[in-house]
Amino acid sequence: MAKILCSVATRGRYFTTLPLVLNAIINQTRLPDKLIIFDDNDAPFDMRKEMIYQYFFQMLDIKGVKWEWLFAEKKGQNYIHQSANTMGYDFVWRVDDDAIPEPNVLETLFSHINKFVGAVGGAILTPPLKFEQFAPTGKIENIDTEPNIQWSPITFVKEVEHLHCSFLYRAGVHDYNLGLSRVAHREETLFTYGLFLKGYKLLAVPNAAIWHLRNFEGGIRSENKEEMYHHDEQIFRNMVNFKDKTVVVLNSGLGDHLVFSKILPEIKNPAIFTCYPEVVPGKSIAEAESLFGNLDQWNIYKKMDEWKWKDSLEKAYRKLYL
Amino acid sequence: MERLARKSLSEVIPMIIISPYSKKLERENPKSPSASYWRELISRIDEPIIQIGIDGEEQLVSDFRKNLPILELKALLKECRTWIGCDSFFQHLAWLEGKPGIVLWSVSDPLIFGHSENINLLKNRDVLVDNQFLWWCFVEHKDERFVTPDVVLENIK
What we know:
heterodimer; A: alpha/beta; Spore Coat Polysaccharide Biosynthesis Protein SpsA, Chain A; eight-stranded mixed beta sheet; three-stranded mixed beta sheet; 10 helices; about 20% strand; globular; B: alpha/beta; Rossmann fold; six-stranded parallel beta sheet; 6 helices; 6 strands; about 30% helix; about 15% strand
């Protein structure tokens, strides 16, 4: 039986929409195995002292859902999601702290999961609805010219190239970009598009509506610095520009480069960033950092650690790049 | 570089390459993760030996070739009868060149970082560090983690 973690990242919404979100999660027809609330507040409270939260925690206990309240690092929600992504669960259902799922959402999303599917999302409806007259394609190339497919009711299952806000995803197969700023603009687009590029299907599905009670107070993105958005947008554009390439980043030792060189002929259309261009030709690591922000998703040692790797370094490179 | 390669190819005496040290570790641990008995080992080998390495490493034999480019190392590998090294880039280069040799292992796992084509001398798996993917400079160097020189000599034959 697949294990599902539900993660909620919250900031500034203890007493507005967060209780509604938690109540909706507790009342799902298919419960997650665990709920983690990542508290990103600048001055976090001990919510065990709040009556309504005491009831929530008791209801979770009674229903057999493990729960945890974690204080986040205040680095941005990409860090929070990456933490959930690597906690060892099969799937993660990420829910925003102002997005209230209808009771059947998790059950519906999970019913669409099979080995080919990387993520499933339903409609994220913000009253009043504005985008019902559109027929979005969900393709990354149209991201500037069409509304997100999840912003209006979804009437049939559609394969897309990116998802938004809240969705159920296959954990541990693609990393969130930790190079984004604290606002983590485009983080979910980058993440889900990364799953798509790895060959997984992304589905927008009907009958799984989440009501987005937009609240301009609080929120995990409650920074308002233009340069942060610009920085993140540039990383997003760079990643999309490399969509037809296999980005290879060899930020490691000479021996690692030599082992990697064995599999290089099998990599399709590689774009290589290297420390030892005389062994594996390519551009500099500094350029990779400038283009993509954080390079952890290509760190072979970090990956082997995450995978609890026991096989050869060559096979680890195969898993990462082929 | 071509001249050097030609010169060494003309020297058809088979020899053993030793690559005793890995890259100098950064941070606070000054010791490379290699056995300290190289001098004893060398004294018991009755064959020409060429040491390869970089500036700053201890010279153990008269023929110490430092800072060779990859192409020259490949040329040397073609000439040698075999080689002895530690867990460093050299074992990977030799693997790519199809020249098996002997690797002295201690805390790193040859099943992950080694190649089955080589003779991987690991004392036992109890000496391996638990997390193979942390910085090696945080791992304490201990000589008793290596096999003895006798074991190495037995495998050179």
